[in-house]
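Workshop exercise sheet. Pairs work together: one partner reads the sequence aloud, the other fills in the structure field after running the prediction. Swap roles for the next sheet.
Pair: D.N. / O.F.
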Amino acid sequence: MASAAAIQRAFEDLRSGRSVQALSALRLMVQRDPRDMAAVHALGLALVESGQHEQGIHHLERSVRALPDSPAYRSNLGSALMHVRRFREARAHFEESVRLDPKYPLSYMGLTIACNQLDDIAAGIEAAKAGLAAKPGWPEMTRNLGALLEATGQLREAIALIRQLADDHPNDAGIRATLLMLTNYADLPADEVSAEHLRYRACVPPLRMPAARHPDPERPLHVGILSADLRSHPVARFAAALFDAKPSDWRLSVYSLLNAGAADEGAQHFRARADAWTEVGMMDDASISKRIALDEVDVLVELGGHTAGGRIAVIDRPPAPVTISAIGYPNTTGHPGVAIRVVDSITDPQGTDERCSERLVRIDPCFLCYTPHADMPTPGPPPDGPITFGSFNLASKISDSCMALWARVLQAVPSSQLLVKSRFLSDRSVVVPLRDRFARHGVPPERLEIVTHLPTQQEHLALYRRVHVALDTLPYNGTTTTCEALWMGVPVVSRVGDRHAARVGASLLAAVGHSEWAASSDDAFVSVATRTAQDSALLSQLRASLRTEVAASALCDATAYAARWQTLVRDAWRSACGSAPGAKA
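Structure field:
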């Protein structure tokens, strides 16, 4: 039988990036004694962590069949099944693990996440609370509970919960990141949200910034991209231009924080265009940083910020002379190791720089470039029947101020309807409070239609055929949803706010040549939405022409956008070379 120490050494190799050695050692243990379920189970775990999900699940299932009363084995199999989106099977194994040992905390974590993926938020909250009863004060589970409360529209409760946790653990970067993400959704003053982000510096140890290696400002560059979202994910729709127009003398390396698997077409698209692709999700932050540094990356671009898939703490040990934050996060990171944040003059006008820890680089006319899906359905004519306003954004983005503004629009257009589509809206624990909130703002049930997550992208996009005018959310605007609505021939009305997240809509609309749909006041928002919705000739024209306009606009001009990015990266590198030891003044 393999020793626990030998198995531990294999996992140390795995998490230090030596997956070949780790898997070889574990396979040898299994070959020596196929009945050694500890070795079989360990091999299954290692295969899953290495991205070989189906093989890993095979070995984990073997161990569970041999030892069906092991809560740990059940829990680990559930986690592996989550990787391949077999959520119902995963949930069953987590539930059995909890039954076997009501005090086994990791099963509650898995059960919470599985319920979330199955849009059963009420059960997820119940599992989170049970996990906290089994392990009081558990920070990771408290963060999960906060996220679930946010999904049900209980944003104030979620922020209060996580803020108390952050106060109890003032130097915990993960807790702080969860709080920061929540504040982007909230009706809080922009300066308060910014100040909260800038406090993230307290979670970062003293930095030792690496000097530029071979500090020739004009030499070929090695650019790294750190992301969990280079797959079938909204961020990927805006990252494609960075790959498709890469200069021939640049080396582009991806450090992927999530192994999407061979079946994910989006991931395969990016993998084919990268010069190197390294799965680092199973590695700890220090090991990822070390790997990037050993690869001698000159400029690192991180795309996640404080989002759930981000690993901003990798930069606690800065692995590259220059780190740039872009695309995926709608605020400053607050991380002193991030040198540059990519924005534009609409999202972040001159005079807003003091809200950010990074140097803002404005790549006008727009900080984003949208690459639509190749198989998006045709727009179709405007729908018959009553005027329908729509929003396909996350329900958690529908703040009270947003709801009040939309209610004014409905009141201004008699008999109009509001169609809200979002994930989680099949769960009564989310839908009932959402309907109640709308009712308190003067939107009766008969004028509100709620649609849940649809199984395919085609069905999701085809639903725009039922919408006359899309209404943007605030203070956290839509991004992918705005681009998709425009591509489907639907005008989007956005309320221009006082922070980056509340000005993305204005930037996107300006980039496609329709700044007239960006309203600078609540009254203007109601007026623009009302006037546009009631102009049937305009709506018919837009259904026929808006996709062509968007395709020809700055928003989809990948060549020009890539050139702006290349200039940005080169200028950042030149600056790093200028500050390198021994550089000429």
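Discussion prompt: Residues 558-578 form the longest helix (21 residues). What would you look at next?
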